[in-house]
Write a structure and sequence with these properties.
The protein has 632 residues and is an alpha/beta fold. The protein has 2 domains: 37-323, Rossmann fold; 327-627, Alpha/Beta hydrolase fold, catalytic domain (Rossmann fold), CATH 3.40.50.1820. It is 26% helix and 26% strand. The protein is built from 17 helices and 29 strands. The strands form 6 sheets. A 10-stranded mixed sheet has the order 1-3-5-4-8-9-10-13-12-11, with helices on both faces. The radius of gyration is 25 Å and the shape is globular.
Length: 632
């Protein structure tokens, strides 16, 4: 019997990089603790709500989904709490094979080696078969939309039979960002002809592996997508190349790579193979698919008009396509190691209101730091501060810091500070001590780290945390870059005193569709508090302040002028406007405003932040800021 479902309204995802905060800093955990499972979707629809308990139910979009056509493998201990769901890897396989039993379906996935692959990342493998004996048809396109909607709707809410529920699908087997499609035979035909041409579908896919796929003459590819094509004809290859703007070619014994020289993540690989086995699948996965990630930066609902669930939290299209530096068993291919630390070393810095302190943090270290080959004082350190509801690891990855760390040989420490809270006096006071103490802990623990090049960055609630770190010990940092957070960020009167002999390069950023506390939703200009924060940054550096009131008519978006202004395009998609204020010829205060982006993590932000902070170091004897404009 079909349940009555109310219209799904503004499904909630403000907790990703938002100001919400319901987790605790102590005993931090962001995984489900589940055993590996293999179910049909019909079984998952029943088992998922029971697994989570409370008022959970399948997403309403899945009410008519043909559950016995789809099989779901879930790895052990999946990410499934708050925004950590975004870290799940999802491999969705379309094949026109049919299976007489679950055992046959599982054996098929094992032959492809996919459960073993996803076990190393945490996530799911979803095997989709046709909904009719005729093979994949237009009806399966509707099912594709339903599955995509359910998987991406993290922490979505709905009303079913008058009862408010949380949709379980995303947390049980979904996620987004690391979402890869594999099409085999008729499944590849389906992706070519029913998925690739739809912007809302294909622009959420981080990578394709299509085997023996055919593409109809009138079919197109609607957005750039990395595509590994096995036994495809020249016309199909050409369509994927056109979508990716491929303008360069490289031949090897394995096949031909076509890529975009300006944005190499936009690429197509054409190969031939008589048979496809788990070794080939693994090679394609590790060497090609996981080199890309998708991020949800576009305005909600803009390019998904008239769909049944338009406007939910992750209903963006296109998702941005960016380079990924994937962690495989805790280490990236270029040698950045993730180390989890749970310690009472900082327990003296408590939020007295609730007893919270920094207990868990994640260290990202170049291998040369761990093996002792890095010279003493040679590796810069970033304090990375997550947003409300975010996971520290998800913040590091989602902002693109793993990519920067690999290229620049940068060390990162990312604490979970959750309900220590930027929003209470007790929490603010504790964080002003705890964040600098964590930096000093890292410098003492790893002699290879460079105490003269310590930086701090955070987004949303993490922007406020960045400011607490700055006000707590400004001389510890060579530069700071808070992003998209203005509440509680301004220094108190007593904070100004410590800047009498210390300057601190500071840049801040926001975006056109940022949250209302940061940007006016009607005019898209920064709010008065943001303008006042720029004045405060100028004041702490003893620089000439901008006028007390903004002039948005003369200076749109920000209301002020600066010594240097400019624009550039990020990742071939979003225009970044920047302003820089000079002190003795050195940029000491900056502001960035990005067109078109909502309040979210963006894999290109780390490069933006690094391009500002990397030029600064601090003289450890005198405390003076040293500016090197030539550092690459």
């Amino acid at each position: 019997m079909k349940k009555h479902v109310s219209l799904l309204l503004a499904l909630t995802l403000l907790l990703t990089t938002g100001f919400a905060n319901n987790a605790f800093a102590l005993n931090y955990k962001a995984t489900l603790g589940n055993e590996a499972t293999f179910e049909t979707y019909t079984e998952a629809r029943e088992n998922g709500p029971a697994f989570f308990g409370g008022k959970y139910a399948a997403h309403p979009v899945m009410a008519d989904y043909p559950g016995d056509t789809t099989y779901i493998y879930r790895s052990p201990d999946m990410f499934g709490i708050n925004a950590a769901v975004r870290m799940n890897t999802n491999i969705v396989v379309y094949t026109d094979k049919t299976f007489a039993s679950k055992d046959e379906a599982r054996a098929y996935l094992d032959e492809l080696g996919l459960p073993a692959i996803v076990d190393g990342f945490r996530g799911s493998v979803i095997l989709v078969t046709p909904s009719s004996e005729a093979g994949f048809t237009a009806a399966d396109q509707k099912n594709y939309y339903a599955l995509q909607t359910a998987m991406f709707a993290i922490n979505a809410s709905a009303t079913v039979d008058g009862t408010a529920i949380t949709c379980m699908d995303a947390s049980y087997y979904g996620g987004f960002g690391f979402y890869y499609l594999i099409g085999i035979d008729g499944g590849a035909d389906f992706i070519n002809n029913y998925v690739a041409g739809n912007l809302d579908y294909i622009s959420r896919v981080a990578g394709l592996l299509l085997i023996n796929g055919k593409m109809e003459r009138i079919s197109t590819v609607a957005a750039p997508v990395p595509a590994y094509l096995i036994n495809a004809d020249e016309t199909t290859v050409a369509k994927y190349c056109a979508a990716n703007g491929a303008d360069a070619v490289e031949n090897s014994k394995d096949g031909t790579l076509y890529y975009n020289q300006a944005l190499p993540v936009r690429k197509v690989f054409a190969a031939a193979a008589d048979a496809v086995d788990k070794d080939l699948i693994a090679k394609v996965y590790y060497d090609f698919l996981i080199k890309a990630v998708r991020g949800q930066e576009m305005k909600v609902g803009l390019n998904s008009a008239s769909t049944p669930y338009q406007g939910y939290g992750n209903d963006q299209a296109p998702y941005s396509l960016s380079v990924r530096n994937a962690l495989i068993n805790g280490v990236t291919a270029d040698g950045i190691h993730e180390i989890t630390t749970v310690s009472d070393a900082l327990s003296e810095y408590k939020n007295e209101a609730n007893g919270e302190y920094l207990e868990t943090w994640y260290e990202y270290l170049p291998e040369e730091v761990l093996d002792g080959t890095a010279p003493e004082g040679s590796i810069p350190l970033l304090l990375s501060i997550h947003g409300g509801g975010d996971d520290p690891r998800q913040y590091v990855d989602g902002q693109g810091w793993l990519v920067v760390a690999g290229k620049e040989r940068l060390a990162i420490v990312a604490p979970d500070y959750s309900s220590m809270s930027n929003f209470s006096d007790e929490g603010r006071s504790a964080l002003m001590k705890a964040f600098p103490a964590l930096v000093r802990y890292m410098l003492d623990k790893y002699p290879a780290l460079d105490a003269s090049r310590v930086y701090v960055n955070g987004y949303s609630m993490g922007s406020l945390g960045t400011c607490q770190a700055m006000w707590g010990d400004p001389g510890l940092f060579a530069a700071a870059f808070p992003q998209a957070g203005v509440m509680n960020a301004a220094p108190r009167e007593e904070d100004y005193a410590q800047f009498a002999d210390i300057d601190l390069p500071i840049c801040i950023s926001t975006s056109e569709y940022d949250l209302a506390p940061n940007v006016d939703p009607v005019t898209h200009c920064i709010v008065p508090d943001f303008y006042a924060l720029v004045r405060a940054f100028l004041k702490v550096n003893e620089m000439e302040e901008i006028p007390e009131a903004p002039d948005f008519e003369t200076y749109p978006m920000v209301g002020f002028d600066a010594d240097i202004t400019g624009t550039y395009v990020m990742n071939g998609e979003y225009t970044n406007h920047y302003w820089r204020f000079l002190k003795d010829g050195v940029p000491m205060v900056g502001f960035n405003y990005i067109d078109g982006i909502v309040h979210c993590l963006y894999p290109e932000y780390a490069s933006m932040v690094w391009d500002f902070v990397k030029h600064y170091s601090r003289d450890l004897e005198t405390g003076a800021v040293i500016y090197n404009p030539y550092r690459q």
